[in-house]
């Protein structure tokens, strides 16, 4: 009777949650009654509440030995195993609880969690569904089922359970967080964002929720809005990975100064992580501060001279700075390191093209094709080299192969058209130019060279129209100005032709412009001005018989027959069979 009284008093102390005092009293009690099941059970509960799980395990293992049908003791024992991460023993203990008392819901819930911790998610789902039969209004069971289904990547089914959980418990932030994650995986960003927004209403201090909202906005390309969410996440919990995402969205939204500030902070904090310095370089490059970008990158390369990506980036910046030879040197450094990719070889060959080092470019392009024989763009570029070298058969082989590999590539079609134009197949070239323009109707090069081909087909009006369109996009291009002037000349619109040719001549004077400009003056009746230009060209080209003939025609028109005959005599001396010059001589004699 005295012992019973003592246990009642201890129970009262446990009810007041003074587990430490109760533990002392129970241990004293058990000295006199070592196998008292009720006292052992109470001691186990005290140890469980005091987080002394190993001691609690010993207590409850003894209890269930003497009271094997006590479901609650099995539950507490399972709880001890669970907290000790001894899932091997926790699982059968929880199953024994359910076996003894089928509707013991806490056992179902705890066992679901253990199954998930032990990566047995299928069993967790099966168990939660079974428990829902007994408790169809318990949101936790739907929440557990939905969470396990997410791990199994069964997102549609997971969403159904989580939506039911939120219906039963509409103020539970984590349910909305899980729903948000599930909807992201289904690419339903709107629903994901809405659920994260709800989560913040019930738990405004969860930084990961704001971060996830920012990530959705980032995926949608809404980088300015994403920045605000990442800032909110950082205000709640100042984690560096939030700054990493913030800096990226700042860069993507053109907030380069802010991105620079954050990448500088990250670079200082994590000097071993070169990606932060790389991103810092990209910011300066975007601002047009190529000098600063190149200097930072050069310092990074000093500490890691074999960083291929860094070397390529620095080379690309040098190209923008006009330092082509320095860029070539960097690619040569990469190639000396061995294990060179076709892409590296290709980029180096393109640099050789820029410096007119066509022989080296040809050699490197062949290396690219040895590694990747189906590189359509490489066949195309090798064809361009052969075309420049007037090696038409070789050029044709390369363009044919490029076109076979990628017949819809506008650049390949354009270069093939250039080849056809160069070899006199203007009709087929016109078809190819039309296709290229259908893909890129505003491309200046496509317009200009297609117009040049139109002129070869005597379709000068179409050429003129195309060239005016190109000129609107490149108003200071001397070549396009010249081509517009030439088209106008061929249309016998000499006044307009003169206007464009003079502008072209002011930008880049050359003999070809001077010649057509002189012909314009001649047709406009300005014979003296025309002749001055013919004579100027003749200084560098004294054996050009057509220039001599045109100069003679000018002299004839201004009434100086002697000078006209002098020019004609020179022409027939150079080219004795020049019939037009002979006929003029007869007419003037």
CATH class category of one domain: Mainly Alpha
Strand tally is: 0
User: Would you tell me which CATH topology of one domain applies?
Assistant: Serine Threonine Protein Phosphatase 5, Tetratricopeptide repeat
Given the helix and strand composition, which structural class is it? mainly alpha
Distance between the termini: 157 Å
From the alpha carbons, calculate the radius of gyration and give it in angstroms: 43 Å
Beta-strand content estimate: under 5%
Write a concise keyword list for the protein shown above:
35 helices, Serine Threonine Protein Phosphatase 5, Tetratricopeptide repeat, 589 residues, mainly alpha, single chain, rod-shaped
Task: Characterize the structure shown.
The chain is mainly alpha-helical and 589 residues long. Among the domains are: 205-287, Tetratricopeptide repeat domain (Serine Threonine Protein Phosphatase 5, Tetratricopeptide repeat, Alpha Horseshoe); 510-588, Tetratricopeptide repeat domain (Serine Threonine Protein Phosphatase 5, Tetratricopeptide repeat). 80% of the residues lie in helices and 0% in strands. It is rod-shaped.
Task: Summarize this structure briefly.
The protein is built from 35 helices and no strands.
Which SSEs are present, and which pair or pack?
Layout: H1 2-15, H2 19-32, H3 37-49, H4 53-66, H5 71-83, H6 87-100, H7 105-117, H8 121-134, H9 139-151, H10 155-168, H11 173-185, H12 189-202, H13 207-219, H14 223-236, H15 240-252, H16 256-269, H17 274-287, H18 290-303, H19 308-320, H20 324-336, H21 342-354, H22 358-371, H23 376-388, H24 392-405, H25 410-422, H26 426-439, H27 444-456, H28 460-473, H29 478-490, H30 494-507, H31 511-523, H32 527-540, H33 545-557, H34 561-574, H35 579-588
Helix pairs in contact: 1-2, 2-3, 3-4, 3-5, 4-5, 5-6, 6-7, 7-8, 7-9, 8-9, 9-10, 10-11, 11-12, 12-13, 13-14, 14-15, 15-16, 16-17, 17-18, 18-19, 19-20, 20-21, 21-22, 22-23, 23-24, 23-25, 24-25, 25-26, 25-27, 26-27, 27-28, 28-29, 29-30, 30-31, 31-32, 32-33, 33-34, 34-35
């Amino acid at each position: 009777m005295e012992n019973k009284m003592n246990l009642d008093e201890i129970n009262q102390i446990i009810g007041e949650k003074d587990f430490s005092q109760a533990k002392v009293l129970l241990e004293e009690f058990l000295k006199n009654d070592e196998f008292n099941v009720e006292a052992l059970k109470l001691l186990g509960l005290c140890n469980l509440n005091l987080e002394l799980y190993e001691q609690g395990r010993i207590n409850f293992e003894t209890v269930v030995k003497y009271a094997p049908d006590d479901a609650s003791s099995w539950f507490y024992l399972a709880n001890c195993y669970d907290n000790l991460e001894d899932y091997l023993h926790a699982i059968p203990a929880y199953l024994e609880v359910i076996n003894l008392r089928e509707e013991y819901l806490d056992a179902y819930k705890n066992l679901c969690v253990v199954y998930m911790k032990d990566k047995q998610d299928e069993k967790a789902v099966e168990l939660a569904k079974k428990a829902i039969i007994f408790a169809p209004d318990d949101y936790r069971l739907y929440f557990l089922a939905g969470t396990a289904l997410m791990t199994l990547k069964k997102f549609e089914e997971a969403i159904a359970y989580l939506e039911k959980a939120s219906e039963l418990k509409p103020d539970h932030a984590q349910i909305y967080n899980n729903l948000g994650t599930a909807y992201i995986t289904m690419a339903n960003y709107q629903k994901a964002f809405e659920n994260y927004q709800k989560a913040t209403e019930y738990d405004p201090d969860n930084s990961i929720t704001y971060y996830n909202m920012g990530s959705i906005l980032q995926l949608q390309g809404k980088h300015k809005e994403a920045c605000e969410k990442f800032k909110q996440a950082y205000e709640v919990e100042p984690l560096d990975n939030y700054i990493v995402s913030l800096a990226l969205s700042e860069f993507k939204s053109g907030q380069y100064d802010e991105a620079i500030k954050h990448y500088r902070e990250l670079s200082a904090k994590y000097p071993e992580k070169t990606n932060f310095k790389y991103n810092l370089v990209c910011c300066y490059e975007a601002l047009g501060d190529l000098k600063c970008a190149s200097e930072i990158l050069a310092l990074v390369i000093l500490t890691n001279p074999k960083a291929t990506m860094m070397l390529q980036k620095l080379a690309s910046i040098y190209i923008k700075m006009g330092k082509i030879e320095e860029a070539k040197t960097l690619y040569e450094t990469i190639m000396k390191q061995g294990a060179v990719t076709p892409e590296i070889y290709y980029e180096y060959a393109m640099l050789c093209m820029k410096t007119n080092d066509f022989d080296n470019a040809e050699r490197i392009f062949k290396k690219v094709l040895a590694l990747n024989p189906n590189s359509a763009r490489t066949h195309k570029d090798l064809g361009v080299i052969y075309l420049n070298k007037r090696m038409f058969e070789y050029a044709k082989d390369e363009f044919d192969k490029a076109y076979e590999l990628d017949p819809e590539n506008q650049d390949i079609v354009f270069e093939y058209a250039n080849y056809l134009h160069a070899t006199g197949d203007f009709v087929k070239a016109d078809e190819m130019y039309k296709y290229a323009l259908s893909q890129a109707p505003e491309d200046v090069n496509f317009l200009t060279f297609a117009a040049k081909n139109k002129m070869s087909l005597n379709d000068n009006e179409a050429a003129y129209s195309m060239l005016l369109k190109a000129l609107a996009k490149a108003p200071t291009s001397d070549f396009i100005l010249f081509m517009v002037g030439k088209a106008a000349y061929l249309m016998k619109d000499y006044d307009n032709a003169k206007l464009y040719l003079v502008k072209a001549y002011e930008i880049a004077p050359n003999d070809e412009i001077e010649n057509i400009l002189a012909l314009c003056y001649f047709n406009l009746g300005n014979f003296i001005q025309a002749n001055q230009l013919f004579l100027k060209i003749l200084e560098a080209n004294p054996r050009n018989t057509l220039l001599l003939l045109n100069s003679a025609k000018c002299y004839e028109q201004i009434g100086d027959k002697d000078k006209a005959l002098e020019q004609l005599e020179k022409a027939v001396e150079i080219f004795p069979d020049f019939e037009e010059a002979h006929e003029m001589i007869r007419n003037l004699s």
